[in-house]
Amino acid sequence: MGHATTDAVTDTGASGDILTFANEVYDADDKNKIGTDQGICFRTVPGKAWECFWTLSLDKGQLTVEGPFYDSGDSVLAITGGTGEFAGALGEMALSARGTKGDAYNFVYRIK
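and the corresponding structure tokens:
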């Protein structure tokens, strides 16, 4: 589970917005910090979607993901690689909001 505590949107004018973040990531019970994530998203469809790239850092390595992040509804992003125990990782990450505030998200990594 991720806490969106540092999310910041930069308005770049007519070319679209940029969302940046560097947040703590917690276990499924939202009790223990297990790592961090950081990344960037570019607004592709105003009010509907972003295209995102980010890295999840854990004790045993990192996972990188890329794909759409929707303003409403769930998103599925591709796992594009990793380091350490996750070297060569592929698969997908399901992303869904927890609640309606936009300040917490569930991340489910399915590594193949």
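(Above: one complete record from the training split.) Residues 13 and 43 are 11 Å apart (CA to CA).
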